Amino acid sequence: MSAQDEMKTRILAAIDEDQLVQDVINMVNVQSPTGSEQDMGDYMANRYADLGLQVIRQEVEPGRPNIFGILRGSGGGPMLQFDGHLDVSFTGKEAFMRGATSGVGARVGEADGHKWIFGAGSYNMKAAHAAYIAAVSALMKAGVKLKGDILLSATSGEIEASQVDDFQGAYYRGNGAGAAHAASHGIVPDFAILGEPTGLKLMLGHFGSFWSKITLTGGTVIHTAYTRDLPNKIEQLPRVIERLTAFKKEFEARTEYKGYRGLVNIAAVQGGRPWKASRSPDSVSIYIDVRYPPGWTPLKVKAAVDEVVWELNRKHPELGLEHQPYCTNPPTEIDESDYVAEAVSRAHAQTFGMPVETLYELWYSNAPPLNSMGAKALNYGSAGSRKIKGLTLSDRDREYVHIGDLVDCAKVYALAALDICSRNRTEVRPDLF
Question: Domains of the chain by range and CATH?
């Protein structure tokens, strides 16, 4: 056995499954909805410090930290970042989560002959944080000497949410708020691996998102007693929905990219005054989410939606439509030949004995702010690798992770970190020189 193989054997043997599972349980049991990440940030800072990492704190806004832990290399090598968010999609306390597979607290259970960790936040994405820690801890226990730095990051405000209309405040400031702050305040790695729930598949890129509000205006606020035969903005809404439904198919046909297609979600409707039903509505708004591929820009998406709005206004001027985007996130991708992709692919093949499958997704991750600064960021995580029979992808049923796959994912992270951070930067990022 070569010295390199002996080192890999020591590293893999140092992955502590019991500690990994306990870390997930501890993290899930710390509540951290978007806007309230302080307690989870404090937990991560203490965990990084216990591991012996250099800890850096950033305050994105009061009560919302970014936490970083750095394992310094000897110099000359690249920096590899393992990035994840502190906030969770759901806490388990939501009404629709009642009776769900995942509750407020974490638990270990068996299903389909396998062991799993259940708990809101385990899937997206506290299990990944625990896997990062397991990988770095294994490297340290094995006595590995690296040239490059390893950076663990835990950022606030990643969950897809945005302020709009009456929905204001920290709870609605997501969509990479913490990652954008980090990228503009000195966190600039050569490579980044994000352990989002890709099901042990290599996600080289993902589509962008464009959230927009289309409002029917020009109505009259008047008492119900005087509304007979009066045009009603809510009653006019079906005409707009019908056209947007057609636009959904048109947009999909225009946005095929590497076997994937764009998507339009008619997400919400708001109008009138439900607390004062004795008045007619002067306006009603419809909210859409457009997922668009690499090569498109937010402006190009806006132009496509504008055309629909202008067409409706020409044909039906009584609608009085106004279009206002309120949240945009760019698409992102890296190349399969970038060193971080090759390193994860090799580590996956070594761990599982088979090539990794590559994919794109339509959901958001923190990769765009990192890539915009010159990093090479991809997504690879274990959550979603297996699904329990009888459960769906609905939010109430997917917050669980397979323990065996999580342990193997930590092994992939450790092997990829060894591969990347043992090299000279000039070798793995020649584009910088």
Answer: 3-206+331-432 (3.40.630.10), 208-329 (3.30.70.360)
